[in-house]
User: Which sequence fits this backbone?
């Protein structure tokens, strides 16, 4: 029973998002080596000045234009729909997750999966009680209830139903977004209905694992993280690719952004961070290019406004942009006077993908979101026609499954504020 060997098990706590990601993208593409600075595509200066006066629009709505920024451009950079304070720094809040997504996708690849290795030491009696230690080793930030259930099922296949003595987890182990490994072990054991006498933190054995639990691929994790703006996952992914300074260095060096216009204290967007609308638009362009290089579209890793569950679920509903916007929200209630921002792309009929970033500082969150949606609609309609995306029956079924999961509750989230 203790013979080594890896058993690949797909398990993640956000099954509906994995299903949605699979429905959107059915063909896997291997990551190929590429030269440095792949994103440095020269964008020619626009041939015409912006035609929408954002400053006047905000002033007409009783807002101080200095507290807002906006940049909206066509994919080739030739057509500037609107530009206002594009080189002024603001706190992008959870739009920082776009930078983390870019670096993680580039360095890890879309098919990267976290592995949780499982070992047992001791003997199991005829009633299925393990007299010894169950050791769970891994650093999967998405490991939660459903992962624990699958772990229990795999143990039972091997004759283990209870653990009499001890459960050991490695220092990086987390369960349902807990930063404390020992607490995570207790929570996991409760879900698994195990009754050990002791919980502890230790190293994994050098021997082969009894079996291995594998997460869904990174592309599905990114979709879940960005749609629900899960800070815990963003911080853990960020730590794997160099932390805030590593992410900052990547986007400065790869995208040739001005170093004095970027400050990242976190990879989730919490606390104090600084970027410009122009800088973030460059990040979104690069994220789109990297996604395309790996056979993905932005909607495979970002939510569709008014369509997918998450922070964009109720945005742009009933407007001409419904179903045509793929993006990420950024919200801070207190830091830097409060921020409510939005960045992403709009599918249009004439210009194809139109890239946009909107920063709002100081106004109430609900009011800022309403202003952003109204402004974005007017800017796009002033110069193009939105083109809502069509979803397959399989994708729609995945969304229904997720709706059922959401209504059922039971998940602990560390979502954006």
Assistant:
């Amino acid at each position: 029973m203790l013979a080594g060997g890896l058993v690949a098990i797909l398990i993640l706590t956000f099954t509906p998002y994995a299903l949605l990601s699979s429905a959107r993208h059915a063909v896997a593409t291997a990551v190929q080596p590429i030269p440095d600075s792949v994103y440095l595509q020269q964008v020619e200066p626009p041939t015409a000045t912006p035609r929408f006066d954002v400053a006047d629009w905000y002033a007409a709505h009783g807002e101080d234009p200095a507290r807002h920024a906006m940049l909206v451009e066509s994919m080739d950079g030739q057509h500037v729909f609107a530009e206002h304070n594009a080189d002024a720094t603001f706190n992008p809040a959870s739009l920082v997750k776009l930078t983390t997504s870019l670096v993680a996708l580039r360095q890890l690849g879309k098919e990267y999966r976290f592995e949780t290795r499982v070992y047992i030491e001791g003997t199991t009696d005829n009633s299925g009680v393990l007299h010894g230690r169950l050791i769970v080793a891994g650093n999967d930030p998405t490991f939660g209830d459903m992962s624990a259930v699958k772990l229990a099922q795999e143990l039972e296949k091997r004759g283990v139903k209870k653990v009499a003595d001890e459960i050991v987890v490695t220092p990086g182990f987390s369960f349902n977004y807990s930063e404390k490994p020992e607490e995570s072990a207790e929570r996991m054991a409760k879900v698994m209905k195990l009754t050990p006498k002791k919980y502890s933190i230790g190293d994994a054995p050098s021997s082969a694992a009894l079996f291995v639990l594998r997460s869904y691929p990174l592309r599905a994790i990114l979709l879940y993280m960005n749609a629900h703006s899960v800070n815990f996952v963003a911080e853990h992914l960020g730590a794997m690719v160099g932390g805030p300074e590593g992410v900052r260095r990547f986007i400065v060096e790869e995208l040739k952004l001005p170093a004095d216009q970027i400050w990242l204290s976190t990879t989730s967007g919490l606390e104090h961070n600084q970027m410009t609308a122009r800088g973030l638009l460059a990040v979104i362009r690069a994220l789109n290019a990297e996604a395309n290089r790996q056979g993905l579209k932005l909607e495979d890793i970002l939510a569709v406004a008014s369509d997918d569950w998450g922070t964009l679920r109720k945005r742009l509903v009933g407007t001409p942009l419904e179903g045509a916007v793929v993006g990420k929200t950024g919200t801070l209630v207190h830091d830097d006077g409060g921020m409510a921002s939005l960045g992403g792309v709009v599918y249009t009929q004439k210009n194809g993908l139109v890239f946009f970033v909107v920063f709002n500082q100081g106004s109430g969150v609900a009011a800022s979101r309403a202003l952003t949606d109204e402004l974005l609609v007017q800017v796009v309609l002033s110069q193009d026609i939105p083109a809502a995306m069509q979803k397959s029956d399989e994708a729609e079924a995945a969304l229904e499954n997720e709706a059922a999961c959401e209504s059922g509750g039971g998940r602990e989230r560390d979502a954006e504020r």
Summary: Residues 20-24+50-111+217-391 form a domain with the Beta-lactamase fold (CATH 3.40.710.10).
